[in-house]
Specification:
- By secondary structure, the chain is mainly alpha-helical.
- It has one domain: Four Helix Bundle (Hemerythrin (Met), subunit A), CATH 1.20.120.
- The chain is built from five helices and two strands; from the N terminus they run H-H-H-E-E-H-H.
- The radius of gyration is 16 Å and the shape is globular.
- It starts with a helix and ends with a helix.
């Protein structure tokens, strides 16, 4: 039973990320050079954090020295990576047992500071972090008079009815 809210949150994240990438891809050429740079940095940051915590959940090292790439990837590269990471999270959450969500993991932040979080807390962090920064990306689009993707839980629920 404990898996259900995590599973739902990850499914919403996957859906919202795909919507954002669709909206950005359809409007990227309408952004100025500075706006496009900001957008790519936002998307890269979301993807880097998702990937970093994916590695923490797997107990694997990652190559990030900061919560962003050393060189910002192109939009199509970010979109492909985000899709793969989101798909991994959906599958991963479905594979966990009830007790797994409470299992603590030790890891090191990119700052070098040691940390300890439960698997469920990491999943929650990834979901909330993505929501915050999708809002940043949506604001960039809105300031340009463009329509961002739908991002709310209610929008997700409506889209799946």
């Amino acid at each position: 039973m404990i898996r259900q809210p995590y599973s739902k949150l990850i499914a919403i994240k996957q859906w919202a990320d795909r919507g954002l990438y669709d909206a950005v891809s359809q409007n990227f050429d309408k952004l100025s050079t500075d706006e496009a740079s900001i957008m790519l940095r936002i998307l890269d940051h979301i993807n880097a954090v998702d990937t970093i915590f994916q590695h923490h959940l797997q107990g694997l090292p990652h190559t990030f020295k900061a919560p962003r790439s050393e060189k910002v990837p192109a939009l199509d590269v970010l979109a492909k990576s985000a899709k793969a990471v989101d798909d991994w999270y959906v599958s991963y959450v479905e594979s966990l047992t009830e007790n797994d969500f409470e299992q603590p993991l030790n890891f090191v932040y990119t700052s070098g500071k040691r940390a300890r979080m439960q698997r469920g807390e990491i999943i929650l962090h990834v979901c909330l972090h993505g929501t915050y920064h999708r809002g940043n990306a949506g604001a960039v689009l809105q300031l340009k008079g463009l329509t961002p993707s739908r991002d709310a839980i209610t929008d997700f629920l409506e889209s799946t009815m």
